[in-house]
Amino acid sequence: MNTELKMTAEQVMEARHSVRKYDPNATIPQGELNEILRLAASAPSSWNLQHWRFLVVTDPAIKEKLLPIAYGQQQVVDAYATIIILGDLEANKSAYTIYDAALEKGYVTQEVRDTLIGQIEGAYKNNPEIARDEAIRNSSYAAMQLMLAAKAKGYDTCPMGGYNRDALIKELNIPSRYLPTLMLTIGTASVQAYPTTRFGLDELVITNSF
């Protein structure tokens, strides 16, 4: 763990900032990285389909190949890992695995299991937009949780939308089932994030109706 001090959830949220410059010599023990990913994977998801996958790139040679794909953003090379957040466009296919296991463990009844699977199959069949919408929405929950988990353990992150998606898919052989929704760097900052201004609640909150 990078820090001896435990932070509250509130402190973690306030301490997290997007870091773009990393110490290229700093590492993350595999056990800690796994724990960060485990915590990220505890995020909520529609129907508990867990629409995310984490493509973790730590190989220096592969990170160098990501550099032009990320339009020259050096952080993808210097950070300990560059994680590609993938959204599952066929998450409905996981329904039987998830709910059969839940039934076996006694978490749901046969009736509930059948009802939920029916809802999932119907939604994915009748709404052509739902697969992409749900893949992006739910994988984003996991991405945010990953960033908070990383900060809680003393590491820094940066979510990145600036990359060539088609080139990324080709370079990393990403199957068509998965949609890259975010590139995320994680490591130890060499330069702290610059301060940012934030809107106050008077700009952000609409009470009851416009």
From TrEMBL:
<protein>
    <submittedName>
        <fullName>Putative NAD(P)H nitroreductase YodC</fullName>
    </submittedName>
</protein>
<dbReference type="InterPro" id="IPR029479">
    <property type="entry name" value="Nitroreductase"/>
</dbReference>
<dbReference type="GO" id="GO:0016491">
    <property type="term" value="F:oxidoreductase activity"/>
</dbReference>
<dbReference type="Pfam" id="PF00881">
    <property type="entry name" value="Nitroreductase"/>
</dbReference>
<comment type="similarity">
    <text>Belongs to the nitroreductase family.</text>
</comment>
<dbReference type="InterPro" id="IPR000415">
    <property type="entry name" value="Nitroreductase-like"/>
</dbReference>
<keyword id="KW-0560">Oxidoreductase</keyword>
<feature type="domain" description="Nitroreductase">
    <location>
        <begin position="14"/>
        <end position="187"/>
    </location>
</feature>
